[in-house]
Amino acid sequence: MAVNYRHGLSILELIVYLPSLFISLYMGFRHGFQRNAGWILLIIFSLARIVGSCCYLATIAHPETIDLYIAWGVCTSIGLAPLISTCVGLLSRVNDSIQRKTGRGLLPAFFRLIGLLTLAGMVLCIVGSSMSSSLQGITNSIEAKVGDVLYVIAWACLCVLLLVVGSKYASIEDGEHRLLLAVGISVPLLFVRLIYSLLSVFTHNPTFNMLTGNVTVFLVMAVLEEIVIVGICLGVGMTL
């Protein structure tokens, strides 16, 4: 099989996420690898994109090997969970700042709840993709549909948290406000990425099929959003 447009996206992801992996590792060593810090989640996300891209590029030599497409589907399904959870982790850090300054931060349980929702959604999406025996089943399984619904709920909860934490802007310690801005920019990008995932899973429109659909739509509604979100989170992290 010759290299095509979709393979080009995999090459782009390798170019982006190999450096992102090492930067995320650096941030983890610098700030800690606690899950609520977000850096460990970016490490997981970067690894998923690297492995997924390698699997898809391997289809150039082995185009008939369905296991490679399934592996790519599994890695792709991991995307939304760590990105949403990273934003939750950044908000949790802002909330810790509010708690230190005023003693009126939100209960950590609110942040953990969203983390559990995204984790459950990710597990369901992985199960749905890994149990598929056909290319169509990778994106249209019942498990993937339920997983995406959980992602929608988690995203909505993230928006509520952003508004509540943002309402305490004056109580945030100096230097932590930029985290709020990073999440504020990431939320609409996550929404676009989520819309693409929903269209891919719930509709039969061939344009939004992740494997065989319009590659430009996939680039504009999924790949670029993920790259920008990771760039924003790492960029802000480097300034802390």
TrEMBL record:
Residues 3-240 form the DUF7702 domain. The keyword Transmembrane helix applies. Pfam families: DUF7702. It comes from the Eukaryota. The chain crosses the membrane at residues 6-27, 39-62, 68-94, 106-129, 149-167, 179-203, 215-237. Keywords: Membrane, Transmembrane, Transmembrane helix. InterPro entries: DUF7702. PANTHER family: INTEGRAL MEMBRANE PROTEIN, UNPLACED GENOMIC SCAFFOLD UM_SCAF_CONTIG_1.265, WHOLE GENOME SHOTGUN SEQUENCE. This is DUF7702 domain-containing protein. It comes from Aspergillus niger (strain ATCC 1015 / CBS 113.46 / FGSC A1144 / LSHB Ac4 / NCTC 3858a / NRRL 328 / USDA 3528.7).
